[in-house]
Amino acid sequence: xxxxxxxxxxxxxxxxxxxxxxxxxxxxxxxxxxxxxxxxxxxxxxxxxxxxxxxxxxxxxxxxxxxxxxxxxxxxxxxxxxxxxxxxxxxxxxxxxxxxxxxxxxxxxxxxxxxxxxxxxxxxxxxxxxxxxxxxxxxxxxxxxxxxxxxxxxxxxxxxxxxxxxxxxxxxxxxxxxxxxxxxxxxxxxxxxxxxxxxxxxxxxxxxxxxxxxxxxxxxxxxxxxxxxxxxxxxxxxxxxxxxxxxxxxxxxxxxxxxxxxxxxxxxxxxxxxxxxxxxxxxxxxxxxxxxxxxxxxxxxxxxxxxxxxxxxxxxxxxxxxxxxxxxxxxxxxxxxxxxxxxxxxxxxxxxxxxxxxxxxxxxxxxxxxxxxxxxxxxxxxx
Amino acid sequence: xxxxxxxxxxxxxxxxxxxxxxxxxxxxxxxxxxxxxxxxxxxxxxxxxxxxxxxxxxxxxxxxxxxxxxxxxxxxxxxxxxxxxxxxxxxxxxxxxxxxxxxxxxxxxxxxxxxxxxxxxxxxxxxxxxxxxxxxxxxxxxxxxxxxxxxxxxxxxxxxxxxxxxxxxxxxxxxxxxxxxxxxxxxxxxxxxxxxxxxxxxxxxxxxxxxxxxxxxxxxxxxxxxxxxxxxxxxxxxxxxxxxxxxxxxxxxxxxxxxxxxxxxxxxxxxxxxxxxxxxxxxxxxxxxxxxxxxxxxxxxxxxxxxxxxxxxxxxxxxxxxxxxxxxxxxxxxxxxxxxxxxxxxxxxxxxxxxxxxxxxxxxxxxxxxxxxxxxxxxxxxx
Lengths: 383, 383
Fold this sequence. Notes:
Radius of gyration of chain B: 22 Å
Mean pLDDT of chain B: 82
Oligomer: heterodimer
Largest sheet of chain A: 2 strands, parallel
Helix content of chain A: over 70%
Number of strands of chain A: 2
Number of helices of chain B: 16
Largest sheet of chain B: 10 strands, mixed
Mean pLDDT of chain A: 83
Strand content of chain A: under 5%
Radius of gyration of chain A: 21 Å
Distance between the termini of chain B: 44 Å
Number of helices of chain A: 18
Strand order of the largest sheet of chain A: 1-2
Low-confidence stretches of chain B: none
Structural class of chain A: mainly alpha
């Protein structure tokens, strides 16, 4: 066992910042996505025995969780709805069919293995937060193929988050209240959307300045943070997953202010430059090898096979638009799991829907897929 | 109520013959003598900038005041007196383009630039054989939804038809005053065909949810299908519910039409035209229609680029502009493209805005819908 080194939060932040700076350079040379490099680096830091003192831990944990929220916000922001208008609803329809097939196969396979609906739901997730940085890094965000993967990932994560929220609220508070709370978040979404459209039409002069580069008090950045936190706070109050709120805030921003603007660049800078690498490194650091030794390891092969089958088989539907190689590579990328599956495992454990062994196996599944899938995808796309 | 013409040159003489109840003020006695031979025309020898004289000939009760001398200063002073005494309609000949602003500041609605019009006509004749990419505007279809539209959409269609030398086909329900329409078309020397539908057009459109192809297709009874080059329709006032449920006759028409649709709101010649271009493939068409319209109306054309567009596109629009003797002013957006587009449309500097018919670029269909429904000027949607 390595000795635990207790350091203050600033020293750890410095370490993380230095690694966040070096990783993209190294991972670019090795040929793995920066995100994978960040997680591996986190695991390494954890193995070396870096730990944070109690007070500092709160700071880092908070920054990391805010990193996840900001990541989901940027994921929503990256969805280009003009793609839907250009290609009609086709991309959404393909994505929906792929997800329905995934959920169906997942329910069937987990049932065969004697598990319930919750595990099926957990395995139907993907990692839109990992997929976006990966296809962004490969410069595929603007392509139709990139958007198809993105929209399929978005549908999978959005629907599972919604089903998870519905399922857990229904267990905790009953079905009526659960539906009411989710409906509340959506009503808020559409209200803000319509109000936003009205404001844009009636006060374009005022809003115009927010998006210019020479804005001294950065009103646009402030407004974006306020919008994000309104949704996150409302989600917290309504007991809906905060990442759903953050994601909706991002979608809202994309719907209202679409276009490659200076403000978007600033938000990407804050997210991908600081908060998001912090989140991924922390995910790596929190990985607990001990839990796997406790028996979870034998579950991993079974989970791994199921996790790949439920994504690869439905991805064959992409053949209607793309080549076999592209379709399979899309399936591989969609097989990656990360934050959402870890969060869902934690929620499932808390509600007694899965046990601790299963949780640790799910975490290892996330680690393996989040490292291997983007790398395989990258190789298949010849980068 | 009579028409007062200042300046008895060839144009004044020609006009006096066409109009009823006209008085011409001519400063040269020999010219005045020639004019007095015209039947039904009263000729006064005197200075058109003499306020007392103008009052004597009944300036206060004049229907229209037309100043046609070849001296911009004389025309300016005469128009200023007419404006001072509240004449409703003032039409002025302007020799030098640089004087345009002076007249506009005076609040003169109708400015004529004979030199430019002649130059355009000649260049039209020169190009008429060779230009394959020249846009045709020879068949204009007007949909008369109610009597109100005769005043508005029909009037604007006639304005466009008169400069485009086009024939107008009006479709309407039988309760319309077709005599008035025929008279209006005759005054502008525009060939007119009126087709009556048994049902009200608004009802037909509402029933089908869009403008049925059949109504347009069945227009020509001799077995030849009728394909208009442009459809003109009155703008509509939408209630909140109509907006929410997207129940709009105009939007339904734009969606189903295979030619440009002009939503009439200006009812006068277009002095300044705005074309909004983004990276969508409709932008080329937007540019071409805008240049053609600016050429026909001798207007200035402002191009607003919301995104980076291929340099070939800009070059081809500039070339068309040069060929058509159109002054083009290019603007590039700094900040958020959608907000900047709205700001420009609402600035009140334009009589016509040319936009893509479908939101496939950064504009998005919701912003396009808003511009079509609520812009303060006429809107031409390109296909």
